[in-house]
Amino acid sequence: VVSRLVDATKKVSSLLGPITPHTEQACYLPTTNDGIPVIGEIPGVKGAFVGSGHGCWGILNGPATGEAMAELLTEGETKHVDLKLLGVDSPYRR
User: Fold this and answer.
1) Contact criterion met (CB below 8 Å) for 40 and 21
2) DSSP codes of every residue in 4-35
3) pTM for this one?
4) E-strand spans in 1-94?
5) CB crowding 63-93: b at 16 or more within 10 Å, else e
6) Residue 8: phi, psi to the nearest 5?
7) Inter-CA distances, 4 with 9, 37, 92, Å
């Protein structure tokens, strides 16, 4: 299944396609290399947003992520969650 997802990503995204997944596992709980979720607009890809990388904490943090993403998409900013630390290009990301 993972290889099919990787192949599909290569077909639909010239930006993400060349990236090799750092982890492959069953019951996939996406995480980031630094363990901090990525939430916000993807730099350089107009209109593309991401809210992922929560790992096992997704069940707890999903509602706040959903609210932040809804605000970001409909209002252009978030009112309840500060996304400075969580962006793809955050200077705080390790």
Assistant:
1) no
2) HHHHHHHHH-TTTTTPPPS---SS---B-TTS
3) 0.69
4) 38-41, 49-52
5) eebeebbebbeeeeebeebebeebbbebeee
6) -65, -40
7) 9, 24, 33
What is the model's pLDDT at position 10? 92
Counting Cα atoms < 13 Å in the Cβ hemisphere of 6 gives 10
- Averaged pLDDT in 10-residue chunks for the chain of 94 residues: 87 90 77 91 92 91 94 93 89 81
Question: Rounded distance, CA 65 to CA 69, Å?
Answer: 6
> Both tokens of residue 39?
């939430």
Question: Are the C-beta atoms of residues 80 and 66 closer than 8 Å to each other?
Answer: no
Cβ burial, residue 38 (10 Å; 0-12/13-18/19+): buried
- Mention every residue, 6+ apart, whose C-beta is less than 8 A from residue 63: none
